[in-house]
Amino acid sequence: MATSKLQALWNHPAGPKTIHFWAPTFKWGISIANIADFQKPPETLSYPQQIVITGTGLIWSRYSTAITPKNWNLFSVSLGMAATGIYQLTRKIKHDYASEADPIVAKE
């Protein structure tokens, strides 16, 4: 029984012999690394890197449902990439622009 399930997975159109299997696997690594960067101070984050992570996540979450067979693993990791990228960009923008504004002090 287990052998037939392994053989079915191996021969599946989105199985380990195809890029449909490996692309999401590597993207999970990028997503986990981006989650680990939540602990970094915002000044060390890179706009270009986070924009690319966000863009890649948004684009591939759309196209992962358009390809045949539908790749739900790619869809879920792409949504995760977009979410972590948006969160990191928000942190960076708040740090760079919101924290620079000095409070207005009333002069008497």
Automatic annotation (TrEMBL):
Entry keyword Transport: yes
Keyword Transmembrane applies: yes
InterPro entries assigned: MPC (IPR005336)
Keyword annotations of the record: Membrane, Mitochondrion, Mitochondrion inner membrane, Pyruvate, Transmembrane, Transmembrane helix, Transport
Top-level taxonomic group: Eukaryota
Pfam families documented for this protein: MPC (PF03650)
Secretion signal span: none
Subcellular location per the Swiss-Prot or TrEMBL entry: Mitochondrion inner membrane
Entry membrane topology: Multi-pass membrane protein
Function: Mediates the uptake of pyruvate into mitochondria.
Matches recorded under PANTHER family: UPF0041 BRAIN PROTEIN 44-RELATED
Family: Belongs to the mitochondrial pyruvate carrier (MPC) (TC 2.A.105) family.
Protein name, UniProt field: Mitochondrial pyruvate carrier
Originating species: Camelina sativa (False flax)
